[in-house]
Amino acid sequence: MANGTRADLVGLFHKDQLTIGISELSRMTGVSPRQLRYWQKKGYIIPKNEDEPGKPRIYTMRMVIKAAAMSNLLQTGYTLKAAAAQVDERMRPAQTMYHVIFDRYEGFEVTDDGELLVNLGTFDPDPSQQLFAKMVNGEVKFEIKHK
């Protein structure tokens, strides 16, 4: 049986892995660095290293997407506050999916007969069991196994 670890997937897709500086963020979004600093001051965008004063700001891809979407909404007439709220609401499903996938994922197993089982960790109602997901005829199915 082959196995994959949580680190395998998280290492590939970790949301904080890809970062850019404020100059690059400005170029990508068309928003001036001064305006981006104002958005940060207001709490609408948050640099990854916000707890390191004096260091150049770096932003995650999530903040890049948020800043770009806010810029687009501002151009269509939204206020800054309304644009930030709208983007947060639009990003909410994606953030939830990210957490469902990455917070629960503990690895995968390939059984001797070639079936791929995605380990989603402890089954909440019964800690002695683990929850697995698998594809059966193009549909996601779940399986519970004892630890």
From TrEMBL:
The lineage of its organism: Bacteria, Bacillati, Bacillota, Bacilli, Lactobacillales. InterPro entries: DNA-bd_dom_put_sf, MerR-type_HTH_dom. It comes from the Bacteria. Residues 19-89 form the HTH merR-type domain. This is MerR family transcriptional regulator. Pfam families: MerR_1. SMART domains: HTH_MERR. It comes from Lactiplantibacillus plajomi.
